Amino acid sequence: MSTVSTGATDVLIIGAGHSGLAMSAWLGAHGIEHAVLERGEIANSWRHERWDSLRLLTPNWQSRLPDYRYAGDDPDGFMAMPEVIQFIRRYASFTGAPVRTDTEVISVRQDGTDYRVMTSQREWRCRAVVMASGANGVANVPALAAALPAGVRRMTAKTYKNPGQLDASGVLIVGASATGLQLADEIQRSGREVTLAVGEHIRMPRTYRGRDVQWWLDAAGILDQKFDEVDDLVRARRIPSPQLVGTPERATLDLNSLTARGVRIAGRLVGVDGRKLQFSGTLRNECAMADLKLTRMLENFDALAAGSTWGASLPPGERHAATRVEDSPPLGLDLASERIGTVMWATGFRPDFSWLQMPVFDPRGRLRHEGGVVTPGLYALGLNFMRRRKSSFIHGAEDDVRELGTHLLGAIGDRPQNALWGQSPISMSVTP
Questions:
Q1: Whether domain 140-345 has CATH 3.50.50.60
Q2: Would you state the CATH architecture of domain 6-137+351-428?
Q3: Left, alpha or beta for 310 (phi > 0: left; psi -120 to 50: alpha)?
Q4: Matching CATH topology for 6-137+351-428 and 140-345?
Q5: Which of 50, 70, 432, 55 is nearest to 247 (CA)?
Q6: DSSP 3-state helix, strand, coil percentages of the chain (rounded to 5)?
Q7: Under 8 Å CB-to-CB from 359, ≥6 apart: which residues?
Q8: What pLDDT digit, counting tens, does each position of 371-427 carry?
Q9: Cβ distance 85 to 46 under 8 Å?
Q10: How far apart are CA 18 and CA 7, in angstroms?
Q11: Where are the domains of the chain?
């Protein structure tokens, strides 16, 4: 593919999602020339790589970006995908972000102290690159998926839209984090038989003592915990997303609620032999560990409330029933006899940096970075626990962008030129 022209700017941002747009606003407020390159449309992954019924896991009051926040009449609700898209699109318009849509990045490489970025439209030269293409670029599908029989349909959460895509046969969902549980719930409600393969998971109530669990996590300082404050950062970045769902009813979704409606749970999928599947025998232990961690978390919330001035005004604390597990959980399953026609992989995601042509990856192909700083002039945004536990959430962008933006200015030899950043927050109402 040939380029039609060559462009130059100070900074290129790859990705016009919430993180990329937040960095664009910061650079614009400090007079830094830049462009935002987007392979599709603004909020492209929200538009095209989510299932139809998905809602945010964070309540509306937590939906905020620099100088911009939700101000509708349902602060405790959860945005559906059309609302998220509108929220991000309006932010791009509000900030005047210089977005170039339909511009796919083909390669990024260092050229002396600068960077050369090849796109489907032109080649660029810049002094710094911010990679804001997100943490969910590629679905993680284990190698054993290749051993599934040819007649079994394979899907991921990126390709699934709604139960209408499925035939009437049963569905095996592999993975029991937030995604796996939500898909199991929706597909089972559509009248199909669902089996859920469960490994390590984080059990979490939607509300506790009258407050959303995200309120408690924020009040306890957990969401603000920084990457250099944990003992095992690699593990912290790989912990499954908690079992949460955003619904108008603010319902808690866990394994007990699924099994009560007929979803069958099994252990972690560990092998495929023809039409025979093998599951780990650790299901009971995995569930007991999740129950224990849940109890400890709620005890910490109670201690926080007891030491506060507001705790006495809350309802009393309560504990959740232990996860119900069969006396002899299945260790094997026959796809034919169980009439399972689809295997849905809900086994997480990883960033897609296939276009990054620089020696900045570890032996397992993971990007090496220090809180989003890959090297002076090359940055990442929106990754799991990148600088804080909240880094991958919409409201996590503001602090990360401020700190990385300051580092970026130092790397390219500039300094903040005004004090526009964060002075006058604008509240934006979002309607369907």
A1: yes
A2: 3-Layer(bba) Sandwich (3.50)
A3: alpha
A4: yes
A5: 55
A6: 30, 25, 50
A7: none
A8: 999 999 999 999 999 999 999 999 999 999 999 999 999 999 843 433 333 433 333
A9: yes
A10: 24
A11: 6-137+351-428, 140-345
* Length of the chain in terms of residues written: 432
**What pLDDT does 416 receive?**
40
At 313, the amino acid letter reads S
Q: What is the DSSP letter of 356?
A: B
Single-letter residue type at 282: T
Question: Is the CA virtual torsion 221, 227, 231, 233 positive or negative?
Answer: positive
Q: Tell me how far apart the alpha carbons of residues 20 and 43 are, in angstroms, rounded to a whole number.
A: 10
Give the Cα separation of 342 and 252 in Å (integer).
26
* Tokens found for residue 162: 């709604």
Q: Is 260 exposed, middle or buried (0-12, 13-18, 19+ CB in 10 A)?
A: exposed
How many Cβ atoms are within 10 Å of 327's Cβ, its own excluded?
A: 5
Paired strand residues for 211: 208
Radius of gyration of the chain (CA): 23
Report the pLDDT value the prediction gives residue 7, as an integer from 0 to 100: 85
Q: Does residue 156 sit in helix, strand or coil?
A: strand
Burial of 210 (0-12, 13-18, 19+ CB in 10 A): exposed
Give the pLDDT confidence of 70-110 residue by residue, as tens digits: 989 999 999 999 999 999 999 999 999 999 999 999 999 99
